[in-house]
Amino acid sequence: MCGISAFLSLEGQVESLPNDETVPERNRAGLEKSLDVIQHREPDARGVWISSDHRVGLGHVRLSIVDLSSDGDQPFIDSEDGIYAVVNGELYGHERYHRELANEYRFKGNSDCEIVIALYKHYGLSFLHHLRGEFALVLWDAKRERLFAARDRYGIKSLYYTIQENRLLVATEMKCFLKFGWRPEWCVETLRGHAWQFGHKTQELEIRSEAEMIAGVRERLIEAVKIRLRADVPIGVYLSGGLDSSCVAGIIAHLMRENSAKLGSDGSGDLSRLRCFTVQFDKDSGTDESDIAARTASETPSWDVNGITKVALSEKVNSLGMKVVLVGQGADEHFGGYNNFRPDEIQEPDLSWPESHFPDEDRRQLWHDVQGSSGAVVSGNHETTAPSSTARMVNHTQTIRQLARLGQLPFLPWTSCYISSGDPETLLAESIDPRAREKMVTKWHPLHTSQYIWTKSYLPTISLRYVGDNVDIAYHVEGRLPFLDHHLNEYANQLPPSLKMKYDPTTRCFNEKYILREATRPFVTDELYERRKKPFSGPTRFKENGPIHGTFLRLLTRENVAALGFLEWDSVQSYLEGAFAEQDGVAFRKIMLIAQFVVLMQRFGVQTAKAPKGVIYPQVS
């Protein structure tokens, strides 16, 4: 895990600078200061490269995990062909490319990330398809005057960009842009309307047996875990007490027993050295999983406190001198683990797996029963203003309605000027790649449609940011996610939907992640195998007049809410009272999100949002 910052001066004249500062001085100072902002991410090394014409600059801070020597420091430089690169993350299988490309490229050391330049020289822009892992990168080809920036397939490693004063800025964290003179402002249009950018089916009949598919998942998951155990530092596991993280720990133990993999730099094979970390909530919170986790281990703004719990975990990992942990995120998205996928799993027959068939009348009744009780991850009312054409675009799947409800807040009347172009549900549907929309209507089962929408929206923008890389780095910890290995996911995407979330018409029960559960059966206890899904979630109920309540009272004042400029105070006050006096979990999630807006405003000096010129609405005090 590392941090990167880069700039590219674009064509055109730059306005005069204050204090007689020159453009090169300004750019160099901005780059250096931007690295100061993310120095906490990676304390082991730091490097800067700026072109002789001062047009391009690449900066990097490093957390040393593979090749701990200075040979792994960045930026990487190929002076012969004028190619420069900075990389954040881990690239697996790099040993193979070190061997295969040694005659074409003179590697400086044994770093996994150095293969980026070698692969670019060998494959051109197609080099990206040969990268496997969690990564973000910026590459500058001086001869072709090409700046190339990319991140991994799921956005495990963040990468942001903006244009400011005729400069393209790219960085791991948006805070880096502040040091180049960028000033943040509220995009009320995004908050109001479209914060997410991005029948019978022609399914082919599945000819593989269930046992063959289970074995296929098992084989690919073991490989995904195994390659993530390679490091020159110790490795641990985040263990929630659920199936996903527990099977990762079980697979690691299996590989160690077989002597087929080392635990990072630890080659002792001693299972007692496999360290697992979990977070414990108060027993009366209803969300404590520490007991089952202990038995198994025997040896961006959001509306909940989950991110805070991950900070506590990374602090503990860091205190033990560890830098790498394996994490179970991504299994629910690809193997049907969320309860809110249930309506879409049973909406249509699974034509690829005839054994899953049950009468249409029973299916229709069950679909009606689960719509309002699917246990969705998100909260909000079920009202929709979307036209029927929107539902048809996504084959009537329910997930898009749930996502469109995210961030529903008490907006001031003037903000409605931003929703004239469409409701949130329609804007989200229209942002989907047209090729994917066509498959939703003509080819995909509704469950696969929901998984796609979730993976393109909630996963990268919330799950992988708020409880992922952005919080792990608080204490210099890198999370590795075997369930988001694209080799495993490409296989999972071709599995029959009814074997991911299997329904038993006799018991009228769902067995979520059925095929994953069977594939990991050898690596987990009976208790975990039989246990049903319980989402990782922090508590939403806290004592009135306690420390949490006091924090919200300090943040959510009339003055602070008014300074935001886009929210209505009376409703915020009502949510604040309901969250603590009435122990209302939905109200708590709303004030959690609003409080983070206040923190961002105060921390970065964001100006009050105002209605666009020409838009007149009554002012609300």
From TrEMBL:
Its EC number is 6.3.5.4. GO terms for cellular component: cytosol. One of its GO terms (molecular function) is ATP binding. Keywords: Amino-acid biosynthesis, Asparagine biosynthesis, ATP-binding, Glutamine amidotransferase, Ligase, Nucleotide-binding. Transmembrane segments: none annotated. The active site is at residue 2. Residues 2-219 form the Glutamine amidotransferase type-2 domain. The keyword Transit peptide does not apply. L-glutamine binds at residue 112. It comes from the Eukaryota. Pathway: Amino-acid biosynthesis. PROSITE patterns: GATASE_TYPE_2. InterPro entries: Asn_synth_AEB (IPR006426), Asn_synthase (IPR001962), Asn_Synthetase (IPR050795), AsnB_N (IPR033738), GATase_2_dom (IPR017932), Ntn_hydrolases_N (IPR029055), Rossmann-like_a/b/a_fold (IPR014729). GO terms for biological process: asparagine biosynthetic process. It catalyses: L-aspartate + L-glutamine + ATP + H2O = L-asparagine + L-glutamate + AMP + diphosphate + H(+). PANTHER family: ASPARAGINE SYNTHETASE, ASPARAGINE SYNTHETASE (EUROFUNG). This is asparagine synthase (glutamine-hydrolyzing). The lineage of its organism: Eukaryota, Fungi, Dikarya, Ascomycota, Pezizomycotina.
